[in-house]
Amino acid sequence: MTLTEAKFEYLLRLGDNALILGHRLSEWCGHGPILEQDIAITNIALDQVGQARSLLQYAAEVEGKGRSEDDLAYTRDVMQFRNLLLVEQPNEDFAYTIVRQFLFDNFNFLLHQALTQSKDEHLRAIAEKSLKEITYHLRYSSEWMIRLGDGTEESHQKMQTALDDLFIYSGELTSPDEVDQQMHEAGIGPDLDRLKPAYDQKVKDILAEATLQLPEVKYMQSGGKDGRMHTEHLGFILAELQFVQRAYPGMEW
């Protein structure tokens, strides 16, 4: 894989993570547990979609085939997406949404913090702008992890159930592959092996405050970011996300 090809794949991963998670969070619009959190989650969804646009726009530029960020978002099929399996998991209830968000935000914060030192000036600028939003996202999800985990008996049980179900997808975040390694060697992306200890420690610290137990898992699910596999959920997301463009190709407002 050439450096340009690896860079395109890397940018797709970052953009797809933001796009798919942003869509998942947007599903809460008008359905939040209380009005304040309805608005908060919707705003985080908007942040994610905004980040996705910047990243996919740059990915299209790096690819050099005349595609736009809209083409990448609306015309690729399931196996062409490079998002982590974690972000495509369904909302289920507020507990699942918060656990999913925290596990991702913790990684996303460390990743973008490192990307502010990238040798790629364009990616560094995107990371510097996005980090301000991501810092808030991590604070929001961390606080709700603690509030609900150390809340009532019912909220604690729901959070533990969500954590037990979703933790199996968290290993993919900090597990480097060929693309990650190539980006690290080029000075474009960070060394995920060096991010992992900080990620694991933050998880342990927040779970301790939330009185939640770290799940014991024998293996981690992976395959989303390298396009080997996705869960059945991504197809349903894209059916909704891409419907208008698929039904009316090239349509403009």
List strands and helices in order, with pairings:
Blueprint: H1 3-26, H2 35-63, H3 69-74, H4 94-115, H5 121-149, H6 153-166, H7 178-185, H8 192-209, H9 232-241, H10 243-247
Helix pairs in contact: 1-2, 1-7, 2-5, 4-5, 4-6, 4-8
What does this structure look like?
The structure is a single chain. This protein has ten helices and no strands. It has a single domain (3-247), classed as Ferritin (Up-down Bundle), CATH 1.20.1260. Helix 4 packs across helix 6 (153-166). It has 253 residues and is mainly α. Helices cover 65% and strands 0% of the residues.
Q: Can you tell me the residue ranges where pLDDT is under 50 for at least 5 consecutive residues? A: none
Helix content: 55-70%
CATH architecture: Up-down Bundle
What is the number of domains? 1
Query: What's the count of strands?
Result: 0
CATH superfamily: Ferritin, core subunit, four-helix bundle
Beta-strand share of residues = under 5%
Instruction: Please provide the ordered H/E string of secondary-structure elements.
Output: HHHHHHHHHH
Major beta sheet, specifics? none
Provide mean pLDDT, rounded.
95
- As for the CATH topology, it is Ferritin
The level 1 CATH classification is Mainly Alpha
Secondary structural class: mainly alpha
Q: How many individual helices?
A: 10
The coarse overall form would be globular
Euclidean distance between termini CA atoms = 38 Å
**Radius of gyration from the alpha-carbon trace, in angstroms:** 18 Å
